[in-house]
Design brief:
single chain, 567 residues, alpha+beta, 16 helices, globular
Length: 567
């Protein structure tokens, strides 16, 4: 998903690369070895204390029908799903059963998926969690009042295109409840990543009898996770306390260390970071979703008592320059290849804060941590580019006096303009004149998602919703994603690539699918519709009493379900 004016996505499949090095993750606590010798995150945290969550969001809600949060987020303090994710500071993220006994079975190549619920699962009110509650939770995500959210299921379930939720008494027949513990999903096509899809928020169980006021259900939902909301003041504060009916023996992904969690909403971003830097009072027991600025990062890095509490992710958002295939000036692949050689990625990296804060230079579409990821560089001009190779390619193409427009959003942050200027400087050294066209983010998004040719290049960013090459490659490069609000900003259309994407999506063997996505990555880069620039890092700061706080290779966020508070 776009990490600017479109929804921010994260996403995946079993992660392959463990890039975390010693000292990169704050207060990570002890580790132990598995049977294969791989270090894992510790399996428990101290019990007790009050965790404080400092949120820059104007309002925190535990509504699942339109949520975009990944399964390691605070939404999952309250809600469980059929599957979930286990993350580690030093090895791949894995898909794991949550409410279900396994990660799903299919006997027809991925078109029909069956899940069986574990025994003796209870909601916070003491009633059993059943397959019908899961079905109802998914169905309500189709209601018009719940716009947005992670909606892969809305295009995959049979009959979903005409369904508008359960509030008029209608059911979605493609979600079949066999009995209290068995649920079957009927898809309109084979889809190998369905076990990851059912880890998304909409698949949390919701008892229909409790959904009497849907608009405010997210303020006091019936909990299936280890915490329930006992106090809620919209836009101000929420208090979560232990769910007495949650059974840790059925839950492998939530450590539930704190006795209580207090969520303060609508705080100023920089103020949150400063409070965590100062580390006083309750802030010693705090975590947050605040973004750290380059200047704050410098302060943190200069003081070991602060930097020891910093989690610095090894991977993150994919930052790239899209080359519009509908632009006559970019029709020749040699011109697009020349731009790949000409770009000084190290200069752009410095704009974002350098290698430690800003991110690692990239040459591929898939990012480290994605299953099947392979490192390669078809246009190896070094981090600073190769102007001579760029000029030769332009000469071979018979191109002189090339002028290209570079469109970018101006109202997201000051970095976008600095990035555009850096790109302009790089390309002009290769003899390419660049005209900058800054637009407000709404206008920019309408332009680059329209499928038109009224721009030559645009900067953009993307984060996968789940760990699979599909979650980046399909939305950015499939022909179906050109125009109509799609994410294919390059207007790239290649029938062979479309066929390969379709085959990889349908492959139920996820290891094989990972290899297929890696091959598609290389296939696309041979056509050079983009210039990969960076894999942007993410950072998070925690209070000094927080333990087991780390950012894995995927997703690029701290796992909020596994932290504890030291005495």
């Amino acid at each position: 998903m776009v990490n600017r004016s479109r929804k921010v996505l994260f996403g995946g499949l079993a992660l392959v690369v463990a890039l975390v090095v010693t000292g990169c993750n704050a207060n990570s606590g002890p580790t132990e070895s598995t049977s294969d010798g791989t270090a894992t995150a510790m399996e428990s945290v101290p019990t007790g204390g009050t965790l404080h969550y400092l949120s820059r969001r104007a309002n925190e809600s535990w509504e699942t029908a339109n949520a975009q949060m990944v399964p390691t987020s605070r939404l999952r303090w309250v809600h469980r799903g059929l599957t979930s994710w286990q993350t580690f500071p030093d090895k791949e993220t894995i898909l794991t059963p949550d409410l279900a006994t396994d990660t799903g079975t299919t006997d027809d190549g991925g078109k029909t998926w069956t899940f069986t619920l574990k025994d003796d699962l209870l909601f916070s009110d003491g009633t059993p969690i059943t397959a019908a509650d899961v079905k109802y939770g998914v169905e309500r995500s189709f209601a018009p009042m719940f716009q947005g959210g992670l909606g892969y299921h809305k295009t995959l379930l049979v009959g979903a295109e005409d369904y508008e939720g359960p509030y008029d008494g209608e059911e979605l027949d493609s979600i079949e409840v066999v009995d209290d513990q068995t649920i079957v999903f009927h898809l309109n096509r084979p889809f190998g990543n369905w076990p990851w899809i059912v880890s998304m928020p909409a698949f949390a169980p919701v008892p229909a009898a409790a959904d009497t006021e849907p608009e405010t259900y997210g303020e006091h939902p019936v909990a299936s996770g280890p915490y329930m909301i006992t106090e809620y003041s919209k836009g101000s504060q929420a208090v979560l306390e232990r769910n007495p009916h949650w059974d840790e023996k059925t839950d492998d992904v939530r450590f539930a260390g704190p006795d209580k969690i207090v969520v303060d909403m609508g705080l100023n971003n920089d103020t949150i970071v400063q409070r965590l830097i100062d580390d006083k009072g309750d802030d010693k027991d705090a975590i947050s979703n605040a973004l750290i600025s380059p200047s704050q990062f410098q302060r943190i890095e200069s003081d070991p008592s602060i930097s020891d509490r910093l989690a610095n992710g090894p991977s993150g958002y994919f930052r790239y320059l899209a080359l519009n295939m509908k632009s006559p000036e970019l029709a020749d692949v040699r011109v697009r290849q020349a731009i790949n050689f000409a770009l000084n990625k190290a200069e752009v990296q410095s704009v974002y804060g350098g290698p430690k804060f800003g991110g690692q230079i990239s040459s591929t579409i898939m990012t480290p941590g994605m299953p099947g990821y392979e490192e390669f560089d078809l246009y190896d001009g070094g981090d600073k580019g190769d102007v001579d190779k760029a000029k030769k390619l332009l000469a071979d193409a018979g191109v002189t006096d090339l002028t290209l427009s570079l469109t970018y959003p101006t109202d997201v942050s000051a970095i976008e303009e600095k990035e555009a200027l850096s790109i302009k400087n790089s390309l002009e050294k290769a003899g390419i004149t660049v005209e900058l066209n800054g637009l407000d983010s709404d206008t920019w998004y309408e332009l680059v998602s329209s499928g038109g040719g009224d721009y030559d290049m645009t900067t953009s960013g993307w984060g996968a919703d789940f760990p699979s090459g599909m979650s980046t490659i399909q939305p950015l490069f499939a022909s179906s994603e050109i125009g109509n609000g799609g994410g294919n900003a390059s207007n790239y259309s290649n029938p062979d690539v479309d066929a390969a994407i379709d085959a990889a999506i349908s492959e139920p063997d996820l290891d094989k699918a990972g290899e297929m996505w890696a091959a598609i990555d290389r296939q696309i880069m041979e056509d050079a519709p983009i210039v990969p620039i960076l894999v942007q890092r993410t950072q998070a700061l925690a209070g000094s009493n927080i333990v087991n706080y780390f950012i894995p290779a995927y997703p690029p966020f701290a796992n909020e379900l596994v932290v504890g508070i030291s005495e």
